[in-house]
């Protein structure tokens, strides 16, 4: 079964309703500022100029993303110069303070709106299970991961002081970490741990799930997305080792793309092609900027078809399949996963057809051009025998069709009892939902929900 991400039934509070109403009142006040400050005729003229400036700036941003060389640099100059020119124009009419007031009112609307929506964004937390300390923990550490965090934080010595056997991947050449972890379990290891990137953690997680032994995640990678969503401390990877003496277990789902496990996501299309670039690891930002023109303007690479249940998405530019569902507060950064035990794959399929859609998606303010589904299985097909895939940031070439599934509660993760935890997700500015809250009424004495109650639509 596939569902679109929507709203669960629930009532609204007094504070929620008035915060939503404050948001709309602030927007109305912001719209009244120009005519009151400059008069109707002048304010309309300035509004036309401001809208034109916004269009030109948006176009310049798009050109900067989709062209290289001189055109890109001219577009960057234009994207900076137009807003500065608008500011100078408003200053010449003595309206800067009113523009600042208008932006302040719009900021108030956003703050009040997010506060009203925040209650509905707070999820339940992962259940913790008591667990005795391991007797024979076995840890694998990559000294090159995260810019050398293993050595910088003295992770090997600190782990051995807590009774762990540690193998450091010093080379030469690549090491089959899955085979290394499997051999350790065969020799009696009752916990597997890994200090490395998410791709390495996923391979060891697959072995831990297969043999039903707990996994210890040490946040020694560059981004540590999995550690972040487990509530671990990314700034101090040594604190993760406290789980060896005082820890609890979290039972989380594990994604699989074919037979390969993934803890975060598998990406196809635009992002997967970026990951394939040899320069990606050394200069991620530069590689993305260099490849974006070919990915956003005209088609480059195989034509994709993503299928989840009975829903098919034909020709998306980028597809991301995640182990549980990402939040929408920061699409460009993929947001956060508040839960890792919902037994659902998340699917983002992006088709950017205009400047407005591209900028809106990157800013997280507009969702047009984005299809978001959830389900237990996703199949990615293409008009090619093989396609590039990024699996937890690792570049692969896989035969089509590619099948992704999720195995519920397949992985036992051991984490410290004392850890930062997962912060509440930032709500998306859903103005339609905000309007429902503003117009809603309290729960009736019979427990019926207001007309704006959130619904889950099943496809």
Question: How would you characterize the overall build of this protein?
Answer:
The chain has 459 residues and is α+β, with helices and mostly antiparallel strands. Helix content is 39%, strand content 22%. The chain has helices at residues 14-38, 40-66, 69-92, 96-121, 149-152, 155-161, 177-186, 198-211, 225-229, 270-276, 284-296, 355-363, 431-439; strands at 3-4, 128-130, 137-141, 165-168, 191-195, 215-218, 247-257, 260-262, 265-269, 304-308, 311-314, 318-323, 345-350, 370-375, 377-382, 386-391, 394-399, 402-416. The strands form 2 sheets. Strands 2, 3, 4, 5, 6, 7, 8, 10, 11, 15 and 18 form an 11-stranded mixed beta sheet that branches. A 7-stranded antiparallel beta sheet has the order 1-14-13-12-9-16-17. A hairpin with a 2-residue loop joins strand 10 and strand 11 (311-314). Helix 1 packs across helix 13 (431-439) and helix 2 (40-66) packs across helix 12. The longest helix is centred in the N-terminal third of the chain and has 27 residues, at 40-66. It is globular, with a radius of gyration of 25 Å. The protein starts with a strand and ends in a 20-residue tail after the last helix. The model is unreliable at 1-10, 329-333 and 443-459 (pLDDT under 50).
What's the alpha carbon Rg, rounded to whole Å? 25 Å
Count every beta strand, where a strand is a DSSP E run of 2 or more residues. Answer: 18
Estimate the strand proportion. 15-25%
Count of helical regions: 13
């Amino acid at each position: 079964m596939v569902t679109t991400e929507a709203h669960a039934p629930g009532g609204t509070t007094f504070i929620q309703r008035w915060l939503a109403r404050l948001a709309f009142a602030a927007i109305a006040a912001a719209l009244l500022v120009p005519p009151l400050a400059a008069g109707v005729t002048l304010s309309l003229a300035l509004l036309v100029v401001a809208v034109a400036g916004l269009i030109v700036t948006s176009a310049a941003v798009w050109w900067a993303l989709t062209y290289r060389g001189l055109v890109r640099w001219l577009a960057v100059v234009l994207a900076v110069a137009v807003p500065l020119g608008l500011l100078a124009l408003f200053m010449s009419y003595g309206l800067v303070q009113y523009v600042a007031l208008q932006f302040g009112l719009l900021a108030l609307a956003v703050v009040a709106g997010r506060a009203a929506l925040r209650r509905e964004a707070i999820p339940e937390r992962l259940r913790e299970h008591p667990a005795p300390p391991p007797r024979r923990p076995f840890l694998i550490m990559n000294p090159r991961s995260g810019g050398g965090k293993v050595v910088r934080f003295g992770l090997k010595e600190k782990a051995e002081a807590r009774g762990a056997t540690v193998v450091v991947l010093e080379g030469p050449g690549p090491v089959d970490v899955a085979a290394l972890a499997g051999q350790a379990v065969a020799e009696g290891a009752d916990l597997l741990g890994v200090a490395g990137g998410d791709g390495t953690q996923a391979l060891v997680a697959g072995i831990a799930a297969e043999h039903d032994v707990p996994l210890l995640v040490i946040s020694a990678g560059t981004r540590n997305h999995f550690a972040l969503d487990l509530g671990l401390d990314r700034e101090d990877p040594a604190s993760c080792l406290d789980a060896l003496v005082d820890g609890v277990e979290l039972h989380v789902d594990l994604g699989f793309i074919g037979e390969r496990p993934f803890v975060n996501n598998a990406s196809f299309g635009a992002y997967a092609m970026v990951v394939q670039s040899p320069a990606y690891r050394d200069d991620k930002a530069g590689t993305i900027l260099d490849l974006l023109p070919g990915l956003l303007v005209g088609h480059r690479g195989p034509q994709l078809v993503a299928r989840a249940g009975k829903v098919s998405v034909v020709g998306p530019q980028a597809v991301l399949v995640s182990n549980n569902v990402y939040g929408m507060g920061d699409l460009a950064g993929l947001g956060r996963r508040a839960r890792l035990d919902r037994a659902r794959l998340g699917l983002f399929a992006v088709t950017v057809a205009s400047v407005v859609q591209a900028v809106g998606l990157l800013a997280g303010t507009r969702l047009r051009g984005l299809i978001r589904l959830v389900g237990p299985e996703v199949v990615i097909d293409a008009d090619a025998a093989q396609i590039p895939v990024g699996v937890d940031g690792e570049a692969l070439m896989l035969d089509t069709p590619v099948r992704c599934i999720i195995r519920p509660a397949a992985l036992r993760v051991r984490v410290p009892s004392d850890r930062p935890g997962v912060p509440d997700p930032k709500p998306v500015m859903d103005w339609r939902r905000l309007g429902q809250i503003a117009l809603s009424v309290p729960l009736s004495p019979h427990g019926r929900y207001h007309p704006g109650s959130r619904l889950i639509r099943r496809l």
